[in-house]
Amino acid sequence: MVTATAARLRPADPASAAAWDIAARVADPEVPVLTIEDLGVLRAVRSDGRRAEVILTPTYSGCPAIEQMRDDVILQLTAAGYEQVDVSFTLSPAWTTDWMSDEGKAKLSRYGIAPPNGEAPVRRGPIPVALGVACPRCRSLRTREVSRYGSTSCKALYECLACQEPFDFFKVH
């Protein structure tokens, strides 16, 4: 299923679109229920049918998974018959959770990770306001941040006060 965000990025020419479709199936090594397309990390693909150039944007500048994503993209495209595959990274524009597909956010929730909800958990200003992060298991908003960093640096560790389960929250940025 091609999401609205991916549809805007998916190349129009058939050779590049075919390479995009192969690269888009690569799983995120940290959250294997997501593809790099779901995550919004896959930014561009150009191909003539024999060679492919792929551009990825890491979720963080120090993302440890980006090298594995690159290797997996090269492996997938090479296995599909591409003779030369080049993968490069760009930090501009910076990745944002807005690039995640709605399908990807739903996958996160089913996997037990609270997806980004478009709002940062705490708004800064004259009066800080804590916004609720729904528990992906019981949907309660009675949750609290335990640690700003969860299982990876792009997630925060939360606890549900209703069902007592810990869970990761994919941070908004």
Automatic annotation (TrEMBL):
Coiled coil: none annotated. Residues 25-79 form the MIP18 family-like domain. It comes from the Bacteria. Pfam families: FeS_assembly_P, Zn_ribbon_PaaD. Gene3D superfamilies: Fe-S cluster assembly (FSCA). Residues 131-171 form the PaaD zinc beta ribbon domain. This is Phenylacetate-CoA oxygenase subunit PaaJ. The lineage of its organism: Bacteria, Bacillati, Actinomycetota, Actinomycetes, Micrococcales.
